[in-house]
Each structure stands twice: as C-alpha cells, then as structure tokens.
Amino acid sequence: MSTRVPAPLLVLGGVISVQFGGALAATLVPQIGAAAAVLLRLLFAAGIMLAVARPRLSGHSAQAWRTVVLFGLALGGMNWAFYSSLAYLPIGVAVTFEFIGPLLLAASGSRRPRDIAAVGAAAVGVVLVSEVTHVPLHELSWRGIALALLAGAFWAAYIVFSARTGAAFERLDGLTLAMVVATAVVLPAGALNVEAIGLDHVLKGLGLALLSSVVPYSLELLALRRLSATVFGILLSLEPAVAALAGLVVLGQVLGGAQLAGMAMVVLASVIVLGSPRPRQESPSDLTETGG
Q1: 184 C-beta neighbours (distance < 10 Å), count
Q2: What's the start-to-end Cα distance of the chain, in Å?
Q3: Considering the entire predicted model, what is its pTM?
Q4: HSE value, Cβ hemisphere, 13 Å, CA-based, for 45
Q5: Is residue 205 within 8 Å of residue 196, measured between CB atoms?
Q6: What is the pLDDT along the chain (292 residues), one digit of tens a residue?
Q7: Which of 92, 104, 221, 261 could be bridged to 244 by S-S, CB 3.0 to 4.6 A?
Q8: According to its UniProt record, where is this protein mainly located (predicted)?
C-alpha cells in the first residue's frame, strides 16, 4: 500500500502527526509537568519499538555504543527542552525557535550567498516571532525562548548522531536503543511527579508516543526509500507552519500578523537552505529529521 502513496505525502503525514502530537503535549505538560510528559511518551515509544525492532545487543563496538548513548542523550534533551518550552510559548512560536537548530546546522560551513541570505532572513523572522519589536522586554517569555532554542541545539545534535547511529547499527536497532537511553535520562525527573499521573494522562502519553514517534518514524522510513534529499528538506521546512495550524485547531492559539510573517520568513529560509541541492550526494538524514 505504501508504494501507492506518493512519498511526499508520507513525509507530510509525518510532519502533521508530529505537530499535532506536540499540540497534545501542550495540553499534558500543564497537568503533570514536562519531564513526566516526556517520560510517558518515551516509555510507550521505546516499548513499542523494542517489541517491533527487537534490537541485537551483541556484536557492537565501544564506539558504536558511545554513539547511540549520545544519540539518546540528544533525543531525551530535545524532547524535554521542547516540552518545557510549551509551558511558556504557543506551539507555533516554540517550533519556529526550535527549527533554528537544524537550519543553522544545514547552513554551517556554506559560503553560498543564497544560504547566508537565508540565515539572515531567518534571524529577522525569529525577531518578529519573538515579538521583541513591540512587546516590552520584561513581558517576553525569555525562559520559553531559551528552552526552545536549547531544544533546537539538541535537535541539531540529534541529526548528527542519528546519521552516525544509522551507519553503526542495522535497521531500527540504533533508534530503539537510543529511545531506551532517552527514557533513562528523563526517568529520575519524570518519576518525581508520578503520583500526579492518572489514567487520562497515560492515554495521552500513549497518543504522544504514536503521534510524535511511532507514526512519523514509520512514515519517514517508507518515504525515504523513494524520496530525494531536496524534496525531503522542503517538506520538513513546513514544520513551523504546521505547528501553528495545530496550535490553532487543538489549542485555540492565535498568532499575530508579525509572528505569522516571521514564521513565513523562517519557513522560506528553511526551504532555501534545506531544499537546495548539496555539492555532494547526501541522504535526507544529513539534512534534518522530525524533531520535537
């Protein structure tokens, strides 16, 4: 069936799944805290992946294990920081700031005027999204902005170690083991609020695992067999816009005109940088993967 569905639609489906999962997370974080929400997501996602992938534990080098541990740390940190930012920022704004991480990673080392101009446009877009131009500085959510930028930095690290893990482990083994590591990272903090977790929270956590991990990873896995890096990068660039739509539909979050204009600038910059052919042959994972 997957071969009959155009690959771009599979990636777009993954993007929509992730961002509506983020909107669901925004309803859970105020109830049980970011760490507990991330813990529920990762516990269910890791359990599902372990059952499906059944990763092999033997036969890996020490370097491979170091790589997958770093991948797991990046994965856990990315989710924790992003979910924490949702307590302070609308999801569309948070994803826009977070997307700066993979955008800068993709543009790093490039001397092409087009990429440099795109990064500059993204910087202007971020200023508009932050509302720094017309909101008093003391009213800005600096903590939320810092957390979203931190999530973006972890996202960039996630991309780097995802590619290395994919080269060191077969199939989905590396991703599955990294999810176990990420779960262990957030377990101490998430367990502190375990008494606040009820059945409805558990069900939301399962929804998060499916919407933000299992479904998008599966769709991307199918799509990347038939999709160029250029098209993949362009589709991933739509994440801030899809996040804003999810925030509007699920949470009733309405962004101002300046914020929407800034988001459009970031999306355009991402299309230019992530969707540009590279000097060498790259796999899509060299550009970016679903985060948040």
Answers
A1: 15
A2: 28
A3: 0.84
A4: 35
A5: no
A6: 456 788 888 888 988 999 999 999 999 999 999 999 999 999 999 999 899 888 888 888 899 899 999 999 999 999 999 999 999 999 989 998 998 888 888 778 677 888 888 888 888 888 888 887 777 777 788 999 999 999 999 999 988 888 888 788 887 888 889 999 999 999 999 988 888 899 999 999 999 999 998 888 878 777 766 777 667 777 777 888 889 999 999 999 998 888 899 889 888 888 887 766 655 444 444 455 566 7
A7: 92
A8: membrane
